[in-house]
Amino acid sequence: MLNNQFDLCLDTLTLDYGQLVRVATIALAYTRDSLERQLRAWHNIDKKPCAVDAEWLLRDAEALVAATTALHYLTRGQDREEVKIVNR
Fold first, then answer.
1. Residue 67 has pLDDT above 70, yes or no
2. DSSP string for residues in 21-40
C-alpha cells in the first residue's frame, strides 16, 4: 500500500509534495528510457525512416521535456516558503 498524504475531502485537495517529486522522478526515468529505445530502433532501422518514426520520437521527446521541467520546478520548490497551485 502506498504511504502518502494525498487527500480529497469536500472542496479541499491535499497534495503530498514528496510524492509529487517521486512521481516526476519516475516519469523522467520512463520517458528517458522510452526515447532512448526509440532512438536505438531508429538507428537500427533497415529501411528509410518514415514520418511515423519521427512522430514517435517527437512524442517521447516532448514527454521527456514535460517530466524534466516538472521535476526541476518541484525539486527547486521544496525550499520555497509558498507554493501556488494553478488549477484553472
1. yes
2. HHHHHHHHHHHHHHHHHHHH
